[in-house]
Write a structure and sequence with these properties.
Elements: H1 2-25, E1 41-44, E2 47-50, E3 55-61, E4 64-69, H2 75-84, E5 91-93, E6 98-101, H3 107-144, H4 150-183
Antiparallel strand pairs: 1-2, 3-4, 4-6, 5-6
């Protein structure tokens, strides 16, 4: 029973890490990254569709993202979505492809992005701790209902704490890596 709970906790914590990594991939660094625009919602036949489903996205140069729509008629919609987004980028449209030139980040903008990363990291740590809290409550309920022994409860809580520490450490490493990427000139 404890093993099942710990397996559930591990899966939920992995989900929190995956969510964090997706979040961080959308935060701009000094170099071009397709993650910045992949999930950008594009108005396509009355429905919002992520950009990666409508175009191939590549990084031909360190500060350029190239978007080549599968259907040339979507060029205008893609351009409009980029302009409306929070990316603050001007798309260059040559009729076939859109190029996004990423200007170098200013020192102030880098600091703001690092603050944003710290906020996202803290949100992930809170999510991990909430998972731990929920599972400890479940384990204590099982112990009250005599489904597990007091020793099993203690062992389970210790294992859960080890798991929590492991994932918090992973969050910290992910954050450090992203911070280095942002501050790199």
């Amino acid at each position: 029973m404890i093993k099942d709970l710990l397996k559930d906790a591990e899966n939920r914590m992995k989900g929190a890490i995956t969510s964090l990594e997706e979040d961080l991939s959308g935060i701009r660094t000094g170099r071009a990254n397709t993650g910045l625009v992949e999930k950008l919602p594009i108005e396509y036949y009355g429905m919002e569709t992520p950009l990666f489903q409508l175009a191939s996205i590549s990084v031909p140069e360190a500060r350029v993202i190239m978007i080549k729509p599968f259907d040339p008629s979507t060029l205008k919609a893609i351009e409009k979505a980029i302009l409306a987004s929070e990316l603050n980028l001007n798309p260059n449209n040559d009729g076939k492809v859109i190029r996004l030139n990423l200007p170098p980040l200013t020192e102030d903008r880098r600091r703001d992005l690092v603050k944003l990363v710290h906020t996202r990291l803290e949100e992930s740590r809170i999510a991990i701790r909430n998972i731990r809290r929920d599972l400890i409550k479940d384990m204590r309920d099982f112990e009250k209902e005599k489904m597990i022994s007091e020793d099993d409860l203690t062992t389970g809580e210790e294992e859960l704490q080890k798991l929590t520490d492991k994932f918090i450490e992973e969050i910290d490493k992910t954050g450090e890596h992203k911070q280095k990427e942002i501050m790199e000139v």
